[in-house]
Amino acid sequence: MQLQLRFFATFREAVGQKTIDREYDDGLVVGDVLSALESEFDGLEGQLLENGELKPQINVLKNGREVLHIQGIETTMEDGDTLSVFPPVAGG
């Protein structure tokens, strides 16, 4: 299946671009994709997942909807989906 992956702020810097397209096997869930990204990009290693869960303050959206409001990292990905990954944001 083909996925579009979008990165923001420091994650964009780690990947080197805002958007990438990747081909994955069918049947993957969000956690599988995040794990693959941590393996592919040194700057993302240990930044997305912690003990098999999404790290605190990381926002991941599937087609614009927060995955924590779907099935978390067990949310199934489908061909043509867009996964957007946002790092923690600080400020005031």
Written account of the structure:
Helix content is about 20%, strand content about 30%. The chain is built from two helices and seven strands, in the order βαβαβββββ. The strands form two sheets. The protein has a five-stranded mixed sheet with strand order 2-1-7-5-6. A two-stranded antiparallel sheet has the order 3-4. A hairpin with a 2-residue loop joins strand 5 and strand 6. It starts with a strand and ends in a 6-residue tail after the last strand.
Question: Which structural traits does this protein have?
Answer:
92 residues, alpha+beta, 5-stranded mixed sheet, two-stranded antiparallel ribbon, 2 helices
Q: What shape does the CA trace take?
A: globular
Q: Largest beta sheet: what is the strand line-up?
A: 2-1-7-5-6
> Helix- and strand-based class?
alpha+beta
Number of strands: 7
Give the low-pLDDT segments: none
Which sequence of SSEs, written as H and E, runs from N to C? Answer: EHEHEEEEE
Proportion of helical residues: 10-25%
Cα end-to-end separation: 40 Å
Number of helical segments?
2
In terms of quaternary structure, the protein is single chain
- Give the rounded overall mean pLDDT: 94
Helices and strands in order, then pairings?
Elements: E1 2-7, H1 10-15, E2 19-23, H2 30-40, E3 49-50, E4 53-54, E5 59-62, E6 65-66, E7 82-86
Parallel strand pairs: 1-7
Antiparallel strand pairs: 1-2, 3-4, 5-6, 5-7
